[in-house]
Model the fold of this input.
Amino acid sequence: MSLRETRRVICPHDCPDTCSMSVTVEDGRVVSVRGDESHPFTRGFLCVKTNHYLERLYSPLRLLVPQKRVGRKGEGRFAPITWEEAIDTIAERFQSIASQYGPEAVLPYSYAGNMGKLAFGSMDRRFFHYFGASRLLRTICATAATEGYLHTMGDRLGTDPESLPESKLIIAWGSNFVSSNVHLVPFVNEARKRGAVLVTVDPHKNRTAEQSDLFIQPLPGTDAALALGMMHVIVQEGLHDEQFIKENTIGFDALASHLAAYDPARVAAITGLSQDQIIDFARLYARLKPSCIRLNYGLSRHTNGGMMVRTVSCLPALVGAWGVPGGGAMLSLSGAYPLNLAALERADLLKRHERMPRVINMIKLGEALLDVNDPPVKGLFVYNSNPAAVAPDQSKVIEGLKREDLFTVVHEQVSTDTALFADILLPAPTVFEDCDLYSAYGHLYLQLNEPAVAPLGEAKANVEVFRMLARRMAFSDPCFEDSTEELIRQALASDHEHLRGITYERLKQETFVRLNLPRPFVPFADGKYPTESGKIELYSAGMLKLGLSPLPVHIPVSESPEANPELFRRYPLRFVSPAAHHFLNSSFADMPSMKRKERVPTIELNEVDAHSRGLKDGDWVRAFNDRGKTFFRVKLAGTVAPGVACHLSLWWRQYSPGGYNCNVLTSSESADMGGGGTFHTCLVEVEKVTPEEQAVIDESLQEVCAN
Ligand SMILES: Nc1nc2c(c(=O)[nH]1)N[C@H]1C(S)=C(S)[C@@H](COP(=O)(O)OP(=O)(O)OC[C@H]3O[C@@H](n4cnc5c(=O)[nH]c(N)nc54)[C@H](O)[C@@H]3O)O[C@H]1N2
Ligand SMILES: Nc1nc2c(c(=O)[nH]1)N[C@H]1C(S)=C(S)[C@@H](COP(=O)(O)OP(=O)(O)OC[C@H]3O[C@@H](n4cnc5c(=O)[nH]c(N)nc54)[C@H](O)[C@@H]3O)O[C@H]1N2
Ligand SMILES: [Mo]
Done:
């Protein structure tokens, strides 16, 4: 008789939703994956990607045993080895690199492929801290937006999504939640049923814009000007909330005089919008309350991204949107989770070293691998990330990964673009086979994941791999022996009231537990803001000290006609590459069903730009700038303004005609705040491909279809 049971598994991917999945296991094999109906946020459905999770879990690309390279770098030819040989090799190579160049010559490279608190940052951090490796600044996604928001509000808190039905106006501001945060949709729909208006502000007419009542389409990188223009109108027409401003903010008078520079005529010229659009939007925003601005990270991926987020997050204060259910703004709720991450990461282990190891910004991986550095990077350990596909300035990244003298370890679930460059390739389990603790950045439930099935093949979790390495290298601190359960208990050890009553035992029983917060939770309801002044900072003395403008300002992005006319003359299209509906960064982009849905890498252009280049819908173009070139199929769908181009990312290089994806075009320049990525500040030109290029594309498409 077959054994059939239902389990809960927490979706580990980098997405605000962190869903609870209801999983059926039969004879040790997962046979179905559905949304968990009992979860207050997941509400019984999953996104299109995780609905197909079986395809990922049992993919032919799954890595099942440790392997060592036998071919050329990047060729992807490997031979199986034992775990013992793999760990021995890594330990010996890291030790010899350390004795020749110092431990900083080893660089860990990881991000949020798995958002589990343990997998994301625990034994791995302890290992590299103890060893003295270079420290990685994890900037690729969230740091610019976070810093911008903190300058205004002081904490990573925002509107409780479960209170959204109370909103009368919801603004998706550079946030494509229909694709990137789909579990928000039922709450938004509930609000709309009760009469709420949905507005999208985005240079791309994305899936959220398609469903919106109003679509505002500024040029990329101009949102601070738009927000300041709205403030100009609001203050000039006396629509601001004087009482709220007086009690909750600092710097209103300075801001009000500064707004003179942002009259609708000037803002229209900067944003490409009409004056009426700006004025009407400002009036709508001041009139409809409660209102919620749904920000996410897309808006911040510009050289002025921190300032754009800082500026937009001043708007709710001006109209007094905070303090009621459904009001305010939402970037992230991660500030609500007071987990003891310091205990997991153990930065104190760094004190063993004479000086603090250097830091390397992850978006500058290409430079880190190629430039003359002292010491040079000689060892690289990649886990939870696929930098060959996701990091900017890809030709440099690939050139670096090809270095014969670079010893590269990749710990992965599937044979990614980065895995192909490994010297030692290690198999990782999926969340179905692993145990971990999950917070969320889009809801308020702490969740415990327990394995539903045994690890496939010889897959070992991140925690276990670094525990084995520490043991092999005779690291003496007892922290390297902590078990998974002990690590989870350490993370939960906090006196903070949000965690009151939440224990390991309770999580084991209930899987998900709401933080100890009222429902709905109204952030900042007590009028306290953990900024320097204790108020919402419309003027920020702290920013001035950092050399930033203390008042919100519009600063043209570095690749724009204002900042670099010469570059703009050569590359006149502002290229953005936000998230595709069927991929999650580069995850799922290997799955045949998801690739079929995205079809081929496309570039959306305006008719005017296509016409002036002799292009029609379906033509293949070469998109290029000084950093590189890649190929896209032209899509003319009325989705972008003249001078703007959009590609939905992220395709694997393996499936991209010509062997590079969109990140061969993007720049590794860091944002104005937090060293953040600037993927959407990117000028390009497109040209119809030559017959020779078309032949390459046709051949490569056959391979994509065959895979
Ligand atoms: N399906 C799917 N879901 C995802 C992801 C995915 O890859 N696919 N990625 C996950 C991750 S890691 C993250 S960080 C979140 C990101 O979630 P979002 O921030 O919602 O996602 P993005 O698609 O990066 O960007 C959102 C929008 O920003 C727009 N944008 C770009 N430049 C500007 C600008 O200057 N102004 C304005 N107003 N808008 C601009 C883009 O056109 C895009 O429509 O989503 C998560 N969820
Ligand atoms: N052009 C462009 N580039 C972008 C973006 C964009 O909008 N445009 N978005 C950026 C953003 S928001 C982000 S967050 C980054 C994301 O970049 P990454 O963090 O690299 O995200 P993924 O592409 O999802 O790759 C994560 C990898 O981790 C692996 N993994 C999952 N779980 C585990 C585990 O438990 N252990 C180990 N060892 N591996 C595991 C997965 O199989 C997957 O291959 O990309 C950025 N790149
Ligand atoms: Mo991200």
